[in-house]
Write a structure and sequence with these properties.
Elements (H helix, E strand, L loop, with lengths): L1 H21 L20 H15 L3 H11 L5 H19 L1 H18 L1 H20 L6 E3 L3 E2 L9 H18 L25 H5 L7 E2 L8 H9 L5 E10 L2 E10 L5 E10 L4 H20 L8 H14 L9 H17 L4 H13 L3 H14 L4 H13 L4 H18 L6 H21 L15 H16 L3 H18 L2 H14 L4 H12 L3 H14 L4 H13 L3 H9 L5 H13 L3 H14 L4 H13 L5 H18 L5 H14 L3 H14 L4 H14 L2 H12 L6 H17 L1
Parallel strand pairs: 1-3, 1-4, 2-4
Antiparallel strand pairs: 4-5, 5-6
Helix pairs in contact: 1-5, 2-3, 2-4, 3-4, 7-10, 10-11, 11-12, 12-13, 13-14, 13-15, 14-15, 15-16, 15-17, 16-17, 17-18, 17-19, 18-19, 19-20, 19-21, 20-21, 21-22, 21-23, 22-23, 23-24, 24-25, 25-26, 25-27, 26-27, 27-28, 27-29, 28-29, 29-30, 29-31, 30-31, 31-32, 31-33, 32-33
Length: 743
């Protein structure tokens, strides 16, 4: 369509030039000859007038003016009048820019007509020189010819053009891959560094060989007429030919790459595909495979080791490039992750695929998998090691755990130490500045309200360290909005953790001012107001989702506020929009379970642990609510036992370990394994003796055994506690039942 429009515009321009050249813009030159009507004795003046008319018709205006001036001396009124009119026409033409332009264009066309043959000869010589001088020194070109079609259904019509289009699209995709892969991520406190190293991605430079890749009849000046000349002159070194056959329910495509001069075959493929209901789909599948086979064959020193891994990587990269800055499209990134995972399984040494897969996993919040990919890059490659180390630090940081925070600091420090030595280019300076922002954010996690008695020296104060690294980042790349926003955000989080609300609000607002579309700063600003001004907190969260309608973490925070205010319907709606946040699914499941929607609740808990395999609370909820939902068959209880053990494993050494023992004991009790249940419940009671819940469960176990005295004694100890609420109610009910049994 674009070519058609260009042709139409060209024709319109040519028509406009012709109209300007030959359309009469000024007064017309009369065609009558005044010599026949001149009076006696005035023939000389009439002759001057006629010559002036001839000069004027041929555009010789100065000569025509001279002849008209001589005619003015005539005593014949008719000759004088005609001369005066001619002189006025000439003077008008000489002083009008449009008429001057018309005269020049018309003169040029006359000259072109007289010298057309010479111009054609000169143009042919110049084109030949350009052909041999400009094209011959280039590296091997590949000419793709139309495929011979023996299917009888014209299935191969245009197949060569489709193959070329796929190759050109792959070239564009991989060249574009040098830019930022994901400019920002709405779930991260500061940006991923998602640029592929140009020296690393050999495909980008190798594809430059395909600048001379052409299709017969598409980009050749005279199509097939010059094809033989081009081959004979070795302008293209290789010709790609093929034929398409249909044998029953199979389509076969035979392709060879020939040396243009000798016709020797240097590469060949036999491809086949089963005919489906839509043969065009199978033809497209063949074209896709052939295009990437050709790419792999004609591009030297490719990083990919097979055409399939190259195809998968390019397809995954194309999905990543569909990422929109307004909404994080999880489905698109999940598809990209699947394609890239296939690529690295098929080709474990494909560094760019590992690196890009790590970035996609980070954007999806699958940090453990992201760390595996970045470690693979660091172990195998030097050119991308710093970028991978930085992104590895990000993947640790967003676990928001003490151990992960230490690992994140270690990664960012490694980047800092490596890049502060020697000279840096612009890209490395940006990476160093972002690493400083990462250090500031990591130290911000460590900030707590401390007193002078239990604090370390000033230099060890995490707030001081966060401020120092923010200053370093701004000094390195303060002209970059993403660096300024990340630095102010990190400092805002540090002050927020330290309880310095005014300073936190000022820094977070500065981050928003530097980068209004920066969504995380809105969330932290909302947290600053959450306890004192919840309406203002909701305001900032709503502003965040106005900038990013798909910003899931903001929806999650909105859900928490609505849940705390008892607005369960609005909380459920907000949680349901945070589809990628594990905590949102868990909290939504707890609301649904409280409303008796057990099946829906269990589905939410399962989604939470799918998104985060280390989410202890969701594992515990899965086990607990499986029992509470009445799923008491052996298979369900066996799964609940596994889930409870998983929660216990993750809770070892934490303040919530007692709760995991309690949940596991409750599940084992319903499986009839009373001795194992008693052991877990007793362990829970040893770790936490000031709650009714575990005492009630242990009393219920004794009740099931028929040991009513021990059950009553355990319940009596539970009811002596000052705790009120649900568990006191069920304990009182069980105590009444025990008294009835004894009576």
């Amino acid at each position: 369509m674009r070519r058609v429009m260009l042709v139409i515009l060209g024709l319109l321009l040519a028509a406009a030039v012709l109209a300007l050249a030959f359309w009469p813009l000024g007064p017309c030159v009369p065609l009558i000859s005044p010599l026949m009507d001149a009076t006696e004795g005035q023939e000389v003046f009439a002759r001057h007038l006629e010559i002036g008319l001839l000069y004027e018709r041929n555009g010789l205006l100065d000569e025509a003016q001279g002849e008209y001036e001589q005619s003015l001396a005539s005593e014949d009124a008719e000759v004088t009048s005609a001369a005066r009119a001619g002189l006025e026409r000439v003077l008008t033409r000489q002083h009008s820019p449009w008429l001057k332009m018309q005269t020049s264009i018309r003169t040029f066309f006359y000259w072109m007509g007289q010298n057309l043959l010479y111009l054609f000869i000169i143009g042919t010589v110049v084109w030949s020189v350009w052909l041999f001088v400009a094209r011959l020194p280039r590296r091997p070109g590949y000419l793709l010819l139309p495929f011979e079609d023996f299917t009888g259904d014209n299935l191969g019509k245009g197949l060569h053009i489709l193959v070329r289009s796929i190759i050109q699209e792959a070239k564009y995709t991989n060249l574009r891959g040098q830019d930022d892969l994901l400019r920002s991520s709405e779930r991260l406190d500061f940006p991923l560094f998602g640029t592929l190293c140009e020296a690393q991605d050999m495909l980008s430079s190798a594809l430059l060989n395909l600048d001379s890749f052409s299709v017969a009849g598409v980009d050749l000046p005279l199509g097939r007429i010059l094809l033989g000349i081009r081959q004979w002159a070795s302008v293209c070194e290789h010709v790609i030919v093929g034929s398409l056959h249909r044998c029953k329910e199979v389509i076969r495509l035979s392709v060879e790459i020939h040396v243009a001069t000798t016709k020797e075959a240097v590469q060949g493929w036999e491809l086949s595909v089963a005919v489906g209901e839509q043969p065009a789909d199978q033809i497209a599948e063949l074209a896709e495979e052939l295009a990437f086979r050709i790419l792999f064959a004609v591009c030297p020193r490719l990083e990919a080791h097979t055409w399939r891994s190259l195809h998968l990587f390019t397809a995954g990269l194309r999905q990543v490039q569909q990422y929109g800055e307004e909404v994080l499209d999880q489905a698109v990134l999940e598809k990209a992750a699947g394609l890239l995972a296939e690529a690295v399984i098929l080709d474990p040494g494909y560094i760019s695929a590992h690196y890009l897969l790590g970035i996609v996993y980070s954007s999806l919040g699958r940090y453990s998998q992201a760390r595996d990919e970045f470690r693979e890059v660091i172990a195998r490659d030097d050119q991308l090691s710093m970028e991978a180390t930085y992104n590895l630090g990000l993947a640790f940081y967003h676990e928001f755990e003490g151990w992960a925070n230490d690992e994140a600091i270690s990664c960012f420090m490694e980047v800092q130490e490596a890049l502060t030595r020697g000279k840096r280019d612009e890209r490395q300076t940006l990476l160093l500045a972002l690493a400083q922002c990462g250090l500031a954010s990591a130290y911000a996690q460590r900030v707590r309200l401390t007193t002078e008695a239990n604090s370390n020296t000033v230099t060890d104060d995490p707030l001081v360290l966060a401020e120092q690294h923010c200053r370093n980042a701004l000094a390195l790349a303060g002209d970059r909005a993403e660096v300024r926003a990340a630095a102010h955000n990190a400092l805002g989080v540090a002050h927020l953790s330290a309880g310095h609300m005014e300073e936190a609000v000022a820094e977070l607002k500065a981050a928003i001012q530097d980068r209004p579309e920066y969504p995380v700063a809105y969330v932290y600003l909302a947290q600053a107001y959450a306890s004192t001004q919840p309406d203002k907190s909701i305001h900032w969260l709503e502003r965040a989702v106005q900038w990013r309608p798909g910003y899931e973490y903001a929806h999650f925070q909105l859900g928490k506020i609505f849940a705390e205010r008892g607005e369960t319907e609005m909380a459920k709606e907000a949680y349901s929009r945070a589809v990628g946040v594990p905590e949102a699914h868990n909290n939504l499941g707890e609301i649904l379970a409280a409303e008796g929607e057990y099946e829906k609740a269990i589905a939410e808990f399962q989604e939470a642990v799918r998104l985060n395999r280390r989410y202890t609370r969701a594992w515990g909820n899965l086990a607990w609510w499986t029992v509470e939902a009445g799923r008491l068959d052996e298979d369900s209880l066996r799964k609940a036992t596994d889930w409870a053990r998983r929660a216990l494993e993750l809770n070892r050494g934490t303040a919530h370990e007692w709760l995991s023992h309690d949940v596991l004991g409750w599940v084992l009790l319903h499986r009839g394994r009373l001795n194992d249940a008693e052991q877990e419940l007793s362990r829970s009671l040893e770790m936490r003796a000031d709650t009714i819940r575990n005492r009630y469960h242990l009393a219920y176990l004794y009740y099931k055994r028929g040991d009513w005295e021990r059950a009553k004694d355990t319940l009596a100890r539970a009811l002596d506690l000052t705790e009120h609420g649900y568990w006191r109610g069920v304990a009182v009910t069980l105590m009444k039942e025990l008294h009835q049994e004894v009576a």
